[in-house]
Amino acid sequence: MIARYNNVSLAFGVPGFILQVVGNVLGSSNPGLGGLLILAGTGLLIAGLAYYAIGKGRSGWWGLCGFLSFIGLIILACLKDRSST
Length: 85
Hints:
This protein is an all-alpha fold.
């Protein structure tokens, strides 16, 4: 795993996942704000997972697993590390 990409993935992915959770909680009382937070969180999570995939020596397109939220993270974590570092 390339450490630089791993750090960037955490900087994007963790806030993205938190925004998704907060958006789901707020969705029942305020659907507009909840939906906006979920959308922003998904975008950040996709970016974070793309950097995570690059850090593992994979294509950044694997970041689209972010549409699956936590399940996408599990999928990427199970991929074999192909990085040379």
